């Protein structure tokens, strides 16, 4: 199941939000050794102050095992985003139909269920949840800055990134910016490859700001 947490429900999900930041710390600081801002055992940055929407993976037992963060592109200025540094002079999107995603993280055991291409079933579930969220607020695309490893995962999952500009070295990784399509075809492909029978996104009410 993919849990949607919008800003107006933060107060009801204090525990879950704390667990998201701990998961990000384990993935981005401890496992990948990225240069990220931390506070104790949590990874927190300036984008979290902007009250983003969060999607989180829950296992069948209810444990939080993945997350992704989403913000509307038309509410971000150049000082609040990393995208212009990766797009090599191309303008960053500012549209009600395009949101930005970041902090795509997954922390699951090695024996977690797999789907097509040897990818974790949880990876397909979360990407399907992102597209379902996009449909719920009538998005056309999701723009993201990710690393080469995640770009390969998205391509193997059947949701390829449409690059913006060129990849560039960033610390111990390679940074890539691009667009992810929000469409019926993309969702059908993810569900087919992930062996997903139907909708995965759950929320009391979808009232994300557009």
Report on this structure.
By secondary structure, this protein is of the alpha+beta class. Helix content is 28%, strand content 28%. The strands form two sheets. An eight-stranded mixed β-sheet has the order 8-9-7-6-5-4-1-10. Helix 3 (121-136) runs antiparallel to helix 5 (184-194).
What's the gyration radius in Å? 16 Å
Q: What is the beta-strand fraction?
A: 25-35%
**End-to-end span in angstroms?**
24 Å
User: How many DSSP helices?
Assistant: 5
Reading the helices and strands in chain order gives: EHEEEEHEHEHEEHE
Main beta-sheet strand count, sense and barrel state: 8 strands, mixed
How many individual β-strands? 10
User: What form results from the Cα inertia axes?
Assistant: globular
Q: Give the averaged pLDDT, no decimals.
A: 87
- How are the strands ordered across the major sheet? 8-9-7-6-5-4-1-10
Range of helix content: 25-40%
Low-pLDDT stretches are 205-210
Main structural class: alpha+beta
By oligomeric state, this entry counts as single chain
């Amino acid at each position: 199941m993919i849990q949607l947490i919008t800003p107006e429900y933060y107060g009801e999900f204090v525990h879950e939000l704390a667990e998201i930041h701990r998961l990000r710390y384990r993935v981005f600081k401890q496992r990948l050794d990225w240069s990220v801002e931390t506070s104790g055992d949590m990874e927190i940055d300036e984008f979290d102050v902007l009250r983003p929407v969060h999607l989180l993976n829950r296992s069948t037992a209810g444990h939080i095992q993945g997350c992704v963060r989403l913000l509307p592109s038309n509410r971000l200025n150049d000082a609040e985003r990393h995208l212009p540094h990766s797009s090599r002079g191309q303008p960053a999107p500012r549209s009600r139909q395009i949101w930005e995603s970041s902090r795509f993280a997954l922390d699951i055991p090695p024996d977690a269920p797999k789907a097509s291409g040897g990818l974790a079933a949880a990876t397909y579930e979360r990407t399907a949840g992102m597209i379902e969220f996009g449909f719920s607020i009538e998005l056309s695309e999701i723009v993201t800055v990710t690393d080469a490893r995640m770009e390969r995962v998205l391509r193997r999952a059947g949701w390829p990134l449409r690059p913006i500009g060129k990849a560039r070295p960033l610390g111990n990784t390679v940074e890539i910016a691009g667009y992810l399509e929000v469409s019926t075809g993309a969702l059908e492909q993810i569900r087919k490859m992930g062996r997903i029978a139907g909708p995965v996104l759950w929320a009391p009410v979808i009232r994300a700001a557009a």
